[in-house]
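Quick start: read one record
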Amino acid sequence: MSSQPPASPTSRSGTRRVPLSILDLAPVSQGSDAAQALRDSTELARLADDLGYARFWMAEHHGSRTFASSATAVLLAHVANATSRIRVGSGGVMLPNHAPLMVAEYYGTLATLYGPRIDLGLGRAPGTDPMTAAALRRSTGQLDSFAKDVTDLYDWFQPAEQTPDLRVRALPGEGTRVPLWMLGSSLGGASVAAALGLPFSFASHFAPEQLGQALAYYREHFDADAPTAQVDRPYVMAGINVIAAPTTREAELLRTSSIAMTAQIRSGNPGPLLPPDERVLDSLDPRVLQFADTFQAVRAVGTPGEVVAGIEAFVAEHDLDEVITTTYTWDPQLRRRSYELLAQEWGAMPAPQLAPRSAQ
């Protein structure tokens, strides 16, 4: 069992500091293309590495003109090669889209190449539309079969002497002990994370409705003695939308690109990120605006001080161990600026308070 971590650093106001991480989907901006989006994501990862962010995770999406992160493991290899300190991982792999053994081989290979910096976050959502999901030969994603797949992954990452009865082995991968995280936006992910003793990352940046209920269930039912347990106690990270700019007005203007993106998703016609334009607020149906406000209800937008205050309140309300941020701006340079301003205002970036056992 791991020892209890030291107390987290505090801000000048006395508020507890937690590690900050970045979730990136390689967004494509209007007038650009996927190749540039991938270069921009790599540049952001380098910056995050220099600024002290804890993790740089990328999320799996398919058939999207908005995001270029479909081949997540390939991108993570590129990002890991471009960085030196920051943890790199999936946020996440949608496991029913893949043969679990291949996931073990991909992420075992990443861990073999880049050592103990690799995280494997696992989810059940399709990350795409039904037709594309069918083309992926997606399985059902039912909780029982999903939990069994996660257990298999855990076994394949253990040293051979600990799993002598395994008939199938992941090579490379065996013995790498890649840390597993459970992702979720509902009670389903919380229940699997609790039963298997995994750290839990909740997708409150786009699905905030069940955040409190899911975290309460996870904490109440967490099984530290599960054979697959990665941590000694419930460990929670949650997502928040962030845009920091020199003025509140500019930050709110930049957010109009994100509002337009959400409206496109709502309409079933997603496309590249649009330039910021205040007129989008007048052009959209009020019901669509309400959807966008609910979709991104967990957000901190404004000056660096306002953003930090928003994150601090979010951490305090839900007693979070870590926060993972996501930022959408049409101009990738302003996305990097947002993360620079946040890091400067946040101060010293603490390391994760309680690392998964397999990462120690």
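The longest strand covers residues 236-244.
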